[in-house]
Specification:
This protein is α/β, with parallel strands linked by helices. The chain has a single domain, classed as UDP-N-acetylmuramoyl-L-alanine:D-glutamate ligase (3-Layer(aba) Sandwich). It is about 40% helix and about 20% strand. It contains 9 helices and 9 strands. The strands form 2 sheets. A 6-stranded mixed sheet has the order 3-2-1-4-5-6. The chain has a 3-stranded antiparallel sheet with strand order 7-8-9, with helices on both faces. α1 packs parallel to α7, α2 packs parallel to α3 and α3 packs parallel to α4. It binds adenosine-5'-diphosphate (ADP) and ligand LCLJCK34. The site of adenosine-5'-diphosphate has 19 residues, from α7 and α8. One of its GO terms (cellular component) is cytosol. Belongs to the ThiD family. It holds the Pfam family Phos_pyr_kin. It is an enzyme of class 2 (transferase).
Length: about 270
C-alpha cells in the first residue's frame, strides 16, 4: 500500500482540506498521512476564521512523518502565510519525496482568502518550483500569471507561463468556466485536454482538494501523469454527480462512489 501525505488546513465539516485529502487517498487504496498547516472554522456555507499552525510545529509534524514512514507522494493545499511556505519548502528539499502535487489554494469558493496576498509571491518563488504538478483553478492561474483568462487559448498560455516559472507540469482547472468543466494539462511538451461536462450541483465543496489528492494517489500508485489526471477527473466528476446533499450550502462530493459501485452498494 502506498503512503500519501497531505499538508493542508482543516475543514470540520469534512468537505475540503485535510479531510477531503485523506478520504481521497483512502478511496484510492492508499494509506493517508496528514500534516496540518492551519485550523480552519468552516462549513458548507463558508469560512468563519482560521489560526495558522506555527512554522516550528509544522516542521515538527513533517519530521514526525518522514522520520518514521516512507512517503510515496505529497499533496500540498492551504499554506496561508510566507512562514508556512518557507518551512514546507525547506522540508521538501530535506526529504525529497518522489512526487509533489501543489494545489495553490488562494480563495475558498465562498470568497474568503486562505492565502494572504503577501504570500502569493513567496508561493510563486519558492514552492512552485518544487512541484511536479501544480493545479491552479482559473482565478489562481490569473493571480499567478497576472493576466485574465477567458478562453482555452488563455488557459494554454497561462499553463505555459506557470510551467516557465518552474513547475514540472501544470493543470489549469476549468471548474469555474460557465460552458463546461474542461481542464488543460501542460507538461512542457504539449497540451492535454481533459474535457468535462459541467454538472449543475451544489456539491462542489472541496473539488480542487479532491482532484489534486486523487492525482497524488494515482501517481503514487504508478500511473503516468496524463492517466493520473484523467482518472482523478473521473473520480471528482462521479463524486459530484452521485453526492448526497450534506449541509445548507455547497456540500462535499461523494468520495466512495467507485468503491460502493464495485461492492454493489450504490
Ligand atoms: N460543476 C462541475 N461539474 C463537473 N466538474 C467540475 C465542476 N466543478 C468543478 N469541476 C471539476 O473539479 C475539479 C476542480 O475544479 P475547480 O472547481 O476549478 O477547482 P477549485 O475547487 O480549486 O476551485 C476540476 O477537474 C473541474 O473541472
Ligand atoms: C482548508 C481548506 N483548504 C482548501 C479549501 C479550498 O477547497 P477547494 O477544493 O479549492 O474549493 P472549495 O472548497 O473552496 O470549493 C478550503 N475550503 N479549505
Amino acid at each position: 500500500m502506498k503512503h500519501v501525505l497531505s499538508i493542508a488546513g482543516t475543514d470540520p465539516s469534512g468537505g475540503a482540506g485535510a479531510a477531503a485529502d485523506c478520504k481521497t487517498f483512502c478511496a484510492h487504496g492508499c494509506f493517508a498521512l496528514n500534516v496540518i498547516t492551519a485550523v480552519v472554522s468552516q462549513n458548507t456555507q463558508g469560512v468563519r476564521g482560521y489560526m495558522n499552525v506555527t512554522p516550528e510545529l509544522i516542521a515538527s509534524q513533517i519530521d514526525a512523518v518522514f522520520e518514521d514512514i516512507n512517503v510515496d507522494a505529497v499533496k500540498i493545499g492551504m499554506v496561508s502565510v510566507p512562514a508556512t511556505i518557507g518551512v514546507i519548502a525547506d522540508k521538501l528539499k530535506q526529504y525529497k519525496p518522489p512526487v509533489v502535487v501543489l494545489d495553490p489554494v488562494m480563495v475558498a469558493t465562498s470568497g474568503q482568502r486562505l492565502l494572504v496576498p503577501e504570500a502569493e509571491q513567496t508561493l510563486r518563488d519558492i514552492l512552485l518550483p518544487l512541484a511536479d504538478v501544480l493545479t491552479p483553478n482559473l482565478p489562481e492561474a490569473e493571480v499567478l500569471t497576472r493576466r485574465p483568462i477567458r478562453s482555452f487559448a488563455d488557459m494554454e498560455a497561462a499553463a505555459r507561463r506557470i510551467f516557465d516559472m518552474g513547475a514540472k507540469a501544470v493543470l489549469v482547472k476549468g471548474g469555474h468556466r460557465m460552458e463546461d468543466a474542461t481542464d488543460i494539462l501542460y507538461d512542457g511538451r504539449g497540451f492535454h485536454y481533459f474535457k468535462g461536462k459541467r454538472v449543475e450541483s451544489n456539491s462542489t465543496h472541496g473539488t480542487g482538494c479532491s482532484l489534486s489528492s486523487a492525482i497524488a494517489a494515482n501517481l503514487a500508485n504508478g500511473m503516468s501523469l496524463s492517466e493520473a489526471v484523467g482518472a482523478a477527473k473521473k473520480y471528482v466528476f462521479e463524486g459530484i454527480y452521485h453526492a448526497e446533499l450534506i449541509g445548507k450550502g455547497h456540500g462535499p462530493i461523494h468520495h466512495f462512489y467507485q468503491l460502493y459501485k464495485r461492492a454493489g452498494l450504490e
